[in-house]
UniProtKB/TrEMBL annotation:
Annotated ranges, domain PAC: 1-17, 93-145
Name used for this protein in its record: histidine kinase
Organism listed in the record: Spirosoma telluris
Catalytic activities: ATP + protein L-histidine = ADP + protein N-phospho-L-histidine
SUPFAM superfamilies: Homodimeric domain of signal transducing histidine kinase, PYP-like sensor domain (PAS domain)
């Protein structure tokens, strides 16, 4: 008895190629991304960018899925806890927060989460992406400081014009 397994072999090869392309992309992007299963809620994958941003091994987050919270600044932790609870409840969202790295530097991060649902609307996968937005936040700070300085100079100019005008009217 002989069976033609050509279609199955072609499908397996296509699957291997697809997985290889996924790994090539996942291993080389700067953003951290992960995938959780919905039921049971379990971390299925996190890419190597996690190690670069958190300076922790990926195995540490597989062992303890909340270990990423350890570096988050105290002031930002309550917002992250609320965000994480919403994520667990199947709500998509976005949050900016700060992370203190082992070298004491502060990184600004932006996290976005997405929920993949089946045909009946039930969650199947939870996906998240984290971007390092530190340079963007530094530029925003410089712009804000420039704006404050400009407003201060405008106020000084207005005071000078007002004083000069008053002196000309009532010498």
């Amino acid at each position: 008895m002989a069976w033609d397994v050509t279609d199955r072999k072609l499908a397996e090869e296509a699957l291997r190629e697809s997985e290889q392309r996924f790994r090539e992309i996942a291993d080389n992007v700067d953003e951290v991304f992960w995938i959780h299963s919905a039921n049971p809620f379990r971390l299925l994958y996190i890419n190597p960018a996690y190690e670069r941003i958190w300076n922790r091994t990926r195995q540490s987050i597989y062992d303890d899925p909340t270990s990423f919270m350890e570096g988050i600044l105290e002031e930002d932790r309550p917002a992250m806890i609320d965000f994480f609870q919403s994520y667990l409840a199947g709500q998509e969202g976005q949050l900016e927060y700060r992370l203190q790295r082992p070298d004491e530097s502060i990184a600004w991060l932006s996290v976005r989460t997405f929920i993949i649902r089946n045909g009946t609307g039930n969650p199947v996968r939870y996906i998240g992406i984290v971007n390092d937005i530190t340079s963007q936040k530094e530029k925003e700070l410089v712009l804000h400081q420039s704006l404050l300085r400009e407003q201060e100079l405008n106020q000084l100019k207005s005071q000078f014009v007002s004083t000069a005008s008053h002196e000309f009217r009532t010498p």
